[in-house]
Predict the structure of IFRD2 regulator.
Amino acid sequence: GSEAASEQGQEEEVEDRLKEHMDSLLDKSAKARQAALQSLRLALSSKTLSEFLLERRLTLSDSLEKCLKKGKGEEQALAGTVLTLLCLQMGSGPEGEEVFRSLKPLLIGVLTDSTASPSARQSCAMALGMCCYIAAADLE
C-alpha cells in the first residue's frame, strides 16, 4: 500500500513540474523558455506521459507554436525537438494528427526561412519528417 502511495506521490510531483515547465514556455525571458523546453525534452524522452499530455496537448502545441514563431535559433531548435517527442507520445491516432496538422505550416516556414539558424532548420526538418511518418493521415 505504501509503495503505491509513494509511486502516486512521485507521479503527481512529476506532473506538477511538467505543468510548471509548460507555464514557463510563455515566459517573456528567452532563457526561461529555453530552460523549460530543455526540461520538457528530457521528460518526454525519458518517460511515457501520454495520459498527462492527452489533456494538455493543445496547450503545449500552442506554446510550441509561439516558440517557433517568436523564438530564435536555439529556442526554435528545442521547440522542434519537443514537438517531435510530443508527436511520438501522442502516436498515430487523431490526437497526434491534430498536433501535427496544426504545427506543420510553422515547421515548413522555419525550414524554408533562409535567415533561421541551421540548428533550428535542422530540428524543424527532423520534426516534420518524424511527425509526418508518425501522425500524418494524408499520404501526400
Observations:
- The chain has a mean pLDDT of 90.
- The helical segments are 2-24, 30-46, 50-70, 74-90, 94-112, 118-135.
- The two ends are 51 Å apart (CA to CA).
- The chain has one domain: 1-135.
